[in-house]
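Q: Here's a chain of 106 amino acids. Please give me its 3D structure as tokens.
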Amino acid sequence: MILLKEMGFLRVMLLLTTIFFNSAVPVAGTHESYNGVDAFFNTVIPSLTPLIFMVLLLDALMSRVMIDGKNDIGKIASRRNSYISLALAFSLIVFWSSFYLELIGL
């Protein structure tokens, strides 16, 4: 619980969004649906996943930039936040690679 408090609200929301997106990967080859909840899971989430990926990489970069000028405890926290963001970005690649490879025909 202390770790989540040290991460900050926006990073925790980014973590929860990534976990939710990783659990909601549609089956590759699923047809688009523009009605109801299927529109959210088959259209909105796949289109937002690359944006979340870029935000995670930006967060990792900015965490590394913010290390300069902090005390030792702040440096440890910023380094940990950077590693967490990179691990989440890697998890998006692992979970979503089959879906996007199917989209481009590989």
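Q: Can you summarize the key feature?
A: The chain has a mean pLDDT of 88.
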